């Protein structure tokens, strides 16, 4: 399953809107229209750790595509 994540990276001076498509493994019979939040949050934690000190990642929206 693919999930589109729209997010903002901000620091004290500015912010930047970005998006990324995540490939998430899930059963082929998933009936929920929502992406699996736990997998997206794992990605958010990893991405936040990659950012420089003082920058923060804020998820704006996520959609299953």
Main attributes of the structure:
three-stranded antiparallel β-sheet, elongated, 65 residues, alpha+beta, 42% strand
Question: What's the layout of helices and strands?
Answer:
Elements lengths: L1 E9 L4 E9 L13 H14 L5 E9 L1
Antiparallel strand pairs: 1-2, 1-3
Q: How large is the count of helical segments?
A: 1
Strand order of the largest sheet: 2-1-3
The N- to C-terminal Cα distance equals 7 Å
Strand content: 35-45%
List the helices and strands in order: EEHE
Could you say which structural class the secondary elements and strand pairing correspond to?
A: alpha+beta
Silhouette:
elongated
Low-confidence region ranges = none
Mean of all residue-level pLDDT scores? 89
What level of helicity do the residues show? 10-25%
Summed up, the domain count is 1
Q: How many individual β-strands?
A: 3
Described by strand count, sense and barrel closure, the largest sheet is:
3 strands, antiparallel
**What is the CA-based Rg, rounded?**
13 Å
């Amino acid at each position: 399953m693919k999930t589109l994540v729209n997010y903002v990276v901000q620091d004290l001076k500015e912010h930047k809107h970005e998006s990324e498509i995540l490939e998430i493994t899930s059963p082929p019979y998933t009936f929920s229209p929502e992406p699996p939040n736990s997998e997206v949050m794992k990605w958010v934690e990893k991405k936040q750790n990659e950012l420089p000190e003082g920058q923060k990642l804020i998820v704006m929206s996520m959609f299953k595509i």
